[in-house]
Amino acid sequence: MNVRINGEVHMLQNIAKSKKSKVNLTDALEQYLTSKQQTMSFAVAVNSDFISKGQYSSTLLNDGDSIDVLFPIYGG
Amino acid sequence: MNLTIYGEQLNSRLLIGSALYPSPDIMKKAILASGAQVVTLSLKRQNPQAQSGQQIWQYIQDIVKLNNGFLLPNTAGCKTAKEAFTLAQMSRELFQTSWLKLEVIGDDYNLQPDPLELLKATEMLINDGFNVLPYCTDDLVLCQRLYDLGCEVIMPWASPIGTGKGLMNPYNLATIRARLPKATLILDAGIGKPSDACLAMEMGYDGILLNSAVALADDPILMAKAFSDALLSGEQAFRAGIMQQRQTAQPSTPTLDTPFWQQSEPDRT
Predict the structure, then answer these.
(1) Interface contacts (A, B; CB < 8 Å)
(2) Which tens digit of pLDDT belongs to each residue from B159-195?
(3) Do residue B74 and residue A76 have CB atoms under 8 angstroms apart?
(4) Min CA distance, A46 vs chain B (Å)?
(5) Do residues B208 and B157 make contact, with C-beta atoms less than 8 angstroms apart?
(6) One of B44, B65, B82, B101 is an active-site residue; which one?
């Protein structure tokens, strides 16, 4: 399944037990982020809608979805 | 010299940005030298290999811990109310604050806020429990509409972001102050030098939000202190009551019993 993460296309592997089940957001983030980044502060939106941390595992992704993973940075 | 923002009492009337400093260490020292307790920051995409963002975040966390400060996330780069709403929700979760510097940009050339999307976003965010600090133009009616929606704090620009041009339209800014006496008005963007900030404070503005003027100075730490002093001076001048301008000269030294004046009168005959 291909999704767009931070503007780039990524192929996600379905590591769920049933191949029919979809990839959830928790699995997608584990595949995209480095192990260090997974411990850092970040926030996520899918298709321009905010997804709270408590919703990651229940958020199932579809082919072509767009995911934004944002980190703190300086600003004015 | 207290400033209250959404119920929080602050010791400084200066709010400061965390961008554009020569190094994270200078950023930290400059912000601490400024005395500002409110520090703006943002959220951005990050390459999985990049580490710089995390370092900045650590520094900003250190700063607000040291000065008992507050984070003020912004929505820089957003062009629609929907974009700003989503980014605000992400910021609230990550930074654990309902405060938001709302930026909705309508034009890329001068980074001028889009008044229509700004109002729409403000309404959405207030309904969702945010305390909104909207960055807006110096348009009186726009500021009134933002206040009517429930913004306790309104932040008109002095001039476009990063220009350092100072108060582009003092008449507009003075009118906003006069017409919205109960609003907390913070001048945001375009401040170039301490005298700009002092002038706004003399006009009765409640505070100043700036970034480039300190970060891009040759010595940001010294400039931060200069701004701190300028705000204090301007605020004291406003409270002291500035004299009315007069059209003609008025001697400040008494003229009665002035010696010699008759003798020095030129002979015009």
Answers:
(1) 96
(2) 999 999 999 999 999 999 999 999 999 999 999 999 9
(3) yes
(4) 10
(5) no
(6) B101
> Are the Cβ atoms of A74 and B56 closer than 8 angstroms?
yes
Touching check for A21 and chain B: CB below 8 Å? no
Please indicate if any CB of chain A lies within 8 Å of the CB of B48. Answer: yes
pLDDT in tens, A10-46: 999 876 655 667 899 999 999 999 888 898 999 999 9
Closest to B184 measured CA to CA, from B21, B8, B66: B8
Helix axes B24-34, B220-240, angle to 10 degrees: 20
Three-class DSSP category at B176:
helix
**Scanning every residue of chain B, which has its alpha carbon at the shortest distance from the alpha carbon of A33?**
B48
- Token code pair at residue B205: 């503005």
Rounded CA gap, B147 and B124, in Å?
14
Q: Report pLDDT for B254.
A: 85
- What chain B residue is nearest to A51 in terms of C-alpha separation? B90
What CA–CA distance (Å, rounded) separates B168 from B201?
15
pLDDT score at B265 = 62
pTM recorded for the entire structure: 0.92
Q: How far is Cα B55 from Cα B194, in angstroms, rounded to an integer?
A: 30
Catalytic residue flag (residue B101): yes
Cα–Cα dist B16/B122, whole Å: 22
Hey, what domains does chain A have and what are their CATH numbers?
A: 2-53+62-70 (3.10.20.30)
Q: Which residues of B127-152 are buried (b: 16+ CB within 10 A; e: fewer)?
A: eeebbbbbbbbbebebbebbbeeebe
Instruction: Write the ipTM.
Output: 0.93
Pairing of strands B184-188, B207-210: parallel
Q: Can you tell me whether residue A75 is helix, strand or coil?
A: coil
Cβ <8 Å between B86 and A43: no
Of the partner residues A32, A48, A71, the one whose CB lies closest to the CB of residue B43: A71
Average pLDDT value over all residues in chain A: 91
